[in-house]
Amino acid sequence: MPLTSWRCLVVLLLFVLVHSLPPVIKIGAIFTQDQKDSSTEWAFKYAVYRINKDKHLLPETTLVYDIQYVPKDDSFHASKKACQQVEFGVQAVFGPSDPMLGAHIHSICDALDIPHLEARVDLEAEYREFSINLHPSQPLLNKALQDVMTYLNWTKVAVIYEQDYGLVKLRELVRAPSKRDVEIHLRQADPDTYRAVLKEIKTKEIHNLIVDTRPEHMHHFLRGILQLQMND
Questions:
Q1: Would you give the end-to-end CA distance of the chain in angstroms?
Q2: Closest CA to 122 of 110, 146, 145, 139
Q3: Residue 32 in contact with residue 72, Cβ under 8 Å?
Q4: Stretch 182-205: mean pLDDT, rounded?
Q5: Where is the signal peptide (predicted)?
Q6: Which residues in the chain are classed under CATH 3.40.50.2300?
Q7: What residue spans of 20-133 are helical by DSSP H?
Q8: Helices in 54-163 by DSSP H: which ranges?
Q9: For residue 97, which of 120, 148, 215, 217 is within the disulfide window of CB 3.0 to 4.6 Å?
């Protein structure tokens, strides 16, 4: 079949698919309670608004969303909210970004063949048929950090992480073979111990840091950097 005929066939199929959609498509979104009115929630709402506004995308269909909030680290309530949204008739689910909760919601969507859109750290590498994860792959992030360390000729680096999960994310970075010896110091810290850990790092004359901490705690960390005059 000529290329022009293939193009016409694809355009025709897309036309049929778009015009065969229902007039209303319900989308579910699950956020943790600390994400209420956050940039993530507003980005989701804005995306739905833009799609509805651009009639070239879905000319005869309107997206409506149902947002539910769940406690962090509470997989039971998250699963219950997801099941309620399925009963409500959602045809896709967005979130949550919490790694543990996201895995539970993905399992429900996968079992029911419901598309699942998420943006979370996921250490599982296997292909998932009904899931799209917008978060960069952790192995690729670790590879990028390795490239930066090599390019900048780092020989000593401190890796500071807040949660145990942070160490799991960075384990491949620590284990990965390097073209030259790199002295890596691992330290777990939180806002109560940032200053003590940074003081130890300064004493060891380590000037290169990789930090994995909660965004809401970053200002505490930077304050410790300034107080110890480590911002050269």
A1: 65
A2: 139
A3: yes
A4: 91
A5: 1-20
A6: 22-133, 138-228
A7: 39-53, 75-88, 99-112
A8: 75-88, 99-112, 138-151
A9: 120
Residue type, 97: S
Q: Which two tokens stand for residue 59?
A: 């000319």
Residue 4 vs residue 170, higher pLDDT: 170
State the Cα–Cα distance between residues 115 and 127, nearest whole angstrom: 14
Q: Among 14, 27, 120, which residue's Cα sits nearest to residue 68? A: 27
CB 112 within 8 A of CB 139: no
Superfamily of domain 138-228: Response regulator (3.40.50.2300)
**Residues 109-114: contacts with CB within 8 Å, 24+ apart?**
109/82, 112/86, 114/86, 114/90
What pLDDT was estimated at residue 30? 92
CATH number listed for the domain at residues 22-133: 3.40.50.2300
Alpha-carbon distances of 211 from 33, 145, 176, 190, rounded to whole Å: 25, 11, 18, 11
**High-pLDDT (> 90) share of the chain, %:** 25
* Predicted pLDDT at 163: 82
